[in-house]
Structure formats: structure tokens, C-alpha cells
Amino acid sequence: MADPRFDATRPATGGPEVPRDVVLPRLYRPAEIAAALGCSVWWVKDRARRRLIPFTYVGGAYRFTADHFAEIIRAHEEAPARKPKRSKPVAPPEPKAFASQRPEPTSPAVRLQARPPRRLLKAQYGRAA
């Protein structure tokens, strides 16, 4: 007869007994999810940290179930682009006016004058003692 202290359904730490008919879900690591998606582990962890993908946080680590993985794939699906059906022809846009086509201003332009360089202004006053 088997020793009850070494029962396979009871964890070694003396925790609660796990019924034999309960099937626990497999938990995948971020590296496994990243390999399946073809992306980096950093991307998976970053998306989980920012709560953009579903995850389970067990023992200070991100873990993913098969349902989480399927939901991640569904969340990042892109539908094919459909061309909208046009009922009537669309007129081409009007050409934009270029700078050379602008009307001339009515008032004459003010001519700007350059200021003298600062080094010339300082020499004008001499040096301070």
C-alpha cells in the first residue's frame, strides 16, 4: 500500500489536494508566444504590461493560456481592404495656386535694411577700463 504522505495529487509543500479529474490549462511563457507570433519577447511583455493583450500574472511572471493566445491573434487581425463602390463619377480636384500665380500686392513692399555687425558697434565706443 502507498504511503499517504507521498500522494501524487498533493503538492510537496502540503498545499490543498488537487482532484484527479481537474485538467489545468497549459500556461505558455512570453518566449513561446513570441516565437509563435514571430515577434520579440520584449513586445509580448510590453503589450502585457500596458494591458493591451490578455495574460495571467503568476508568481511575478506573465503567462498565457491557449485562449489568451487566440484572443491576441484575433485582436491584431486586419480585414482586407474593400474598394468602395462609386455611384457617380468624382470631379478631379481643382489645381492649387502656386506662389507665381498669386496676385500682386496693392501696396509697395517695404525694403528691409541690414543692421551693422555688433563688433563694429563695440569698436565705436572703445574699450572699458
TrEMBL record:
Protein name listed in UniProt: DNA-binding protein
Annotated organism of origin: Streptomyces gobitricini
Lineage: Bacteria, Bacillati, Actinomycetota, Actinomycetes, Kitasatosporales
Top-rank taxon, per record: Bacteria
Region named Disordered: 77-129
